[in-house]
Amino acid sequence: MLLVHITRPSARATYALEHLFTRLLGWPVRWAASLEELRSSELPRVLYGGTPVQGAFHLPSEPLIDLSGTEGEAAFRNMQAALRKNVPCAPLSTVFFFLSLWEEMRATRQDAHGRMPADDLTACRPGVDPLLVDRTAIQLADMLRARFPSLPPPQRRYSHVLTVDVDNGLRFLGRPMARAIGASARELLRGEAPVARDRWATRLGYRPDPYNDWSVPVRDVLGSVDRCAAFILTRGGGRHDHAARLEHPAFQQALRALPEAVETGLHPSYFSGMDHALVVEERERLRKVLDRPVRISRQHFLRMLLPDTYRLLLAAGFQEDHTLGLHDRTGFRAATCTPFPWYDLEREQDTDLMCWPFAVMDSALRERMGLGPEQALAEIDRVQRLVREVQGTFVSVWHDRYLSGYRNFAPWPGVLHRAAQLARA
């Protein structure tokens, strides 16, 4: 156990120290109410701020932690400049800079879906350690253990969390007749007559829906992963929301047949990030079908606006958000592979919403990076090795269309199987 005293207590200092010691290093913390308590204890001791105390490990005050308002914004900008030049920075500030998601809130550029481009993120800049937050904690642990040999090694354990975004549920069923006719016409114009034939063979009952078996490869690898979650999109009919009708019997049957080991969460629809009523409505529809609580989410298209979207999720009763990742490459949006509680920077308060960063996504590998199955596996292996180096949490994202193995996606169930073996704990 560590005894920690903060000379000038603040929400930022408490958040950064608690996350650093308890979640990143796995060490329990006891807060010392006074310098006298710190001096008289025989526990390993850490003092943040003030002047050094004999016998305690001293962390000097850091502007990013202690300043707010205009001075605080300047501290963030200075920190950003230093990190981008690979200048070593103080540990608490390094942790807080990334986990506060300050850059996301101050984004001046957005792509067509309202997302901050990855190239604008410090964590994605060339030369910046992609897991700088985790490595900073481990380096600090080495210094503390040199000072206090009774401290155990960091209590970190590598794990693989497999997640699936169910964007469709069904490929051909569960859509209005007019939409099916329009889709068939477009397929014929594009020279995709076999797909049009599949569509009507499915709708007429001659063959099963090709997306209805996305859970089969997931079942096959459940024994190789440490956690599995599926995020269900419940809205269709829009330009970006393509889910089958949730009321369709085949969709409901597939969801209810999911193994207990597969947690089910909501994939809030494209325009839900600023609409509390819409998120609540979608969650309730899914809860009624599943007959179980829905407490985890990942935004569709990874589309969110901070702080509004996270406040909305908190108000709706969600406990975890899995949106924090990159849509066009592999990597770590916040320079960490360790789940962390969202800090509401505008209100200067810790929250109960846990952010689970993901590292790789099938659509990014194939559609954005242009990788074939073997190249994708090599990239997945490279990234999971990075996570394994720091004994972190490797989160992978897959989609129902890829796992269906339908036509162009034929190799991808096999990619999942091999990736699960590569990333096995």
Provide the domain count: 2
Write the H/E string, N to C: EHEHEEHHHHHEHHHEHEHEHEEEEHHEHH
Strand order of the largest sheet: 7-6-5-13-12
Rounded radius of gyration (Å): 24 Å
In this structure, how is the largest beta sheet organized?
A: 5 strands, parallel
Helix content: 40-55%
Q: pLDDT below 50 for ≥5 consecutive residues: which ranges?
A: none
- Please identify which CATH superfamily of the largest domain we are dealing with: Glycoside hydrolase/deacetylase
Q: In the CATH hierarchy, what is the class of the largest domain?
A: Alpha Beta
| CATH level 3 topology of the largest domain | TIM Barrel
Beta-strand content estimate:
5-15%
What's the β-strand tally?
A: 13
Global shape = elongated
What would a concise description of this structure say?
The protein is an alpha/beta fold and 425 residues long.
Description:
It contains 17 helices and 13 strands. The strands form three sheets. Strands 7-6-5-13-12 form a five-stranded parallel sheet. It is an alpha/beta fold and 425 residues long. The radius of gyration is 24 Å and the shape is elongated. It folds into two domains: 1-155, no CATH class; 159-171 and 209-422, Alpha-Beta Barrel (TIM Barrel). The protein starts with a strand and ends with a helix.
